[in-house]
Amino acid sequence: MKKKIIAVLMAAAMMSVCVTGCGGREGAAESAPAPATEAAAEEAAPAEEAAPAAEEAAPAEAADTSASAGEGFEDGATIGVSLPWLGTQNWKEAETMFKEQLAAAGYNPIVQAADQKVPQQQQQIESMIENGAKVIVVGPVDGTQLGAVLEQAKDAGIYVIGYDRLLENTTGVDGVVQFGSVKTGELQAQALLEGLEKVKGEGPYNIELFGGGPADPNAPNFFNGAMSVLQPKIDDGTLVVVSGQTDFTQCATVDWDNAKAQSRMDSLLSGFYSDKEIHGVLSPNDGIARAIITSCENAGQEIPVVSGLDAENESVEWVWSGRQYSTVAKPTDALVAKTIEIINSLKDGKGMPATDVTADNGVKDVDIYELPPVVVTKDNAKEVFANDPGRMELLK
Ligand code: BGC
Q1: Atom 9, ligand 1: residue with shortest CA distance
Q2: Which pLDDT band holds residue 42 (cuts at 50, 70, 90)?
Q3: How confident is residue 70, by pLDDT bands cut at 50, 70 and 90?
Q4: Which atom of ligand 1 is least distant from the CA of 85?
Q5: Of 5, 118, 158, 184, which residue has the fewest beta carbons closer than 10 angstroms?
Q6: Is 163 helix (H, G, I), strand (E, B) or coil?
Q7: Domain extents for the chain?
Q8: CB-side exposure of 347: number of CA atoms within 13 Å?
Q9: 189, 226 in Cβ contact below 8 A?
Q10: Would the pLDDT of 26 be above 60?
Q11: pTM of the entire structure?
Q12: What is 4-50 written as a DSSP string?
């Protein structure tokens, strides 16, 4: 089932690349952020005509036309937002932005985070249903564990929107707003390869691989996207995974816990690198990247080339000072804005907006509203953050 989702997401990622213009993929990864994928696509071509190549590639995943307009709802309606935790900067930003922006748009927001605990998230969603929410926005702790409560929400006539992560194995979902997750992994791996060549001279390069939390549906997609780029280089001997640990299950970091990643890195270094240099590490996000770098510094290694994700403030500083090679920006403000745009459409009785990207969540094809992630290195940081005064401030 996971494989199917991954295959579909890969097709979706390819589709989103194609609708913004086939070719120039490499270039797009290196340069300033592309405009929001489907906004540009919708302007460029009517929905039925968009991405014919992708339709050929995945005919079963054509636009879901079943999303019908509802009756809409009143000003001041309650909107629930259930986030998985507040352990990384993106979720803290989402908490603040949803509270402020939903209130500013005239809604009554209930925004809660579940501290990585599935039962806590289920209870929070139940209470949002009891409180008469018209829409519930969910970033799941575990993509597969909310089926029953989300179906309960649907039965109560509530719209359910997945936020940043897919909602799996449930019919209780109307659409998901997220950044291309397979694409994110590809960008991380491309940056790792580029950094190795730039910083570490000629190969072969000794590397290790890290994945995110196994319950998070993004984590295997990030990893598989990255491996699609790295595996050929492992096969031809350019990259050597000295520990031999290349399966997602061996590399995953339970709960995205930085401390767990740091202790795995400590063990890898003491077990495999006492007489070797480590040149690079694939890291699924910024918190784990900083943990890996800290472990290498503690072990007296030269800092390896390390990838990241989220453009967290601390990592933006580390990228700027050369301590972390890259990160990937997936701006929370764009994702929250897209979500509120959909909520406004629902409020006005216009239903879920059209999109031509879908993903099989195990039981249905879910509409995906996909935004493009953008890789960040010291070379393009000023370009990427040109419209983000907070992060620009860190580039000094
Ligand atoms: C998000 C990342 C985040 C990670 C851990 C993922 O689902 O896409 O932005 O770093 O969760 O919180």
Answers
A1: 310
A2: very low
A3: confident
A4: 12
A5: 118
A6: strand
A7: 78-173+332-371, 181-330+377-392
A8: 19
A9: yes
A10: no
A11: 0.84
A12: HHHHHHHHHHHHHHHHTTSS-HHHHHHSSPPPPHHHHHHHHS-GGGS
Tokens matching residue 300: 């007296």
Pocket of ligand 1 (CB under 6 A): 87-88, 90-91, 164-165, 212, 216, 218, 256, 285, 309-310
Tell me if domain 78-173+332-371 and domain 181-330+377-392 are identical in fold.
yes
Q: Best mutation site among 93, 178, 181, 310 for ligand 1, i.e. most ligand atoms within 8 A of its Cβ?
A: 310
Which tens digits make up the pLDDT trace of 137-182?
Answer: 999 999 999 999 999 999 999 999 999 999 999 999 999 999 999 9
Q: Which CATH architecture has domain 78-173+332-371?
A: 3-Layer(aba) Sandwich (3.40)
pLDDT at 13: 43
Measured distance CA(286)–CA(395) in Å, rounded: 17
d(CA 16, CA 9): 10
| Neighbouring-strand partners of residue 375 | 328
Token representation of residue 353: 């907006």
* CATH of region 181-330+377-392: 3.40.50.2300
Does residue 223 carry a pLDDT above 90? yes
